[in-house]
Write a structure and sequence with these properties.
By secondary structure, the chain is α/β, with parallel strands linked by helices. It is built from seven helices and nine strands, in the order βββαββαβαααβαβαβ. 30% of the residues are buried.
């Protein structure tokens, strides 16, 4: 059996005098898309941030390739396990400036920005070459989500954590994003995706397994 890429064991987070979740177990297999579901306040976003190494936990352990989170240099871990928030940070300048930005980080030294690849990805979500010259500050919330996704796929992680990635997009573009992520997942045998969405029908399309967050006593 192929070992999981990402695991969480006995995970717990204590918030406002109660356990938001406790003894949470998760094993994400290569090639898998897992949907995280739960009501408002169940901690879906927080769980993704914990898995990305952006928030601490009060119990349990997260591991990548069987190596606990604290055994990884954090820049290396976060390059492999990437979290895309519902409202991504906007990089100043043009869209192209924002796409090039990550290539200047030390963890990605040796990687080169490929403009044609960026155009190919943007075309998949209905944007042409003119979009590269658009000012980031003028983008809508949905366009900001598209830029963040393309930026991530240009420097592909092994685990993609998507937090409501199509919340600000129309249905047709949301379907384009689903197709793009599905094709990215199939592009290598050591990739996996975790997805949250308020669109239940979307989760049914993109995933075969769900983890329900229902709170803990």
């Amino acid at each position: 059996m192929t070992p999981p890429l990402l695991t969480a064991t006995g995970l717990g987070r204590f918030v406002a005098d109660r356990w938001l979740w406790r003894d949470l177990e998760l094993a994400l297999a290569p090639g898998e898309t897992l949907a995280i579901t739960g009501g408002s306040g169940s901690g879906k976003t927080l769980l993704l941030r914990v898995l990305a190494g952006l928030d601490p936990v009060d119990a349990g352990e997260v591991a990548l390739d069987g190596v606990p989170l604290d055994g990884w240099p954090m820049p290396s871990y976060r390059a492999q396990v990437r979290y895309l928030p519902q409202k991504p940070v906007t990089i100043e300048g043009t869209v192209e400036d924002g796409l090039r930005f990550a290539f200047g980080l030390r963890v990605h030294r040796g990687a080169a920005f490929k403009r044609e690849r960026a155009l190919d990805l943007l075309a998949r979500v209905g944007r042409d070459e003119r979009f590269l010259g658009a000012r980031a500050a003028s983008l809508s919330g949905g366009e900001g989500q598209l830029v963040a996704l393309v930026r991530t796929l240009l420097l592909p992680p092994r685990v993609l954590l998507l937090d409501e990635p199509t919340a600000s997009l129309d249905d047709a573009t949301a379907r384009d994003v689903e197709s793009l992520v599905t094709d990215w997942l199939a592009g290598a045998d050591d990739r996996a995706v975790i997805w949250t969405s308020h669109r239940d029908e979307q989760l049914s399309r993109v995933s075969r397994r769900r983890l329900e967050l229902g709170g803990a006593p």
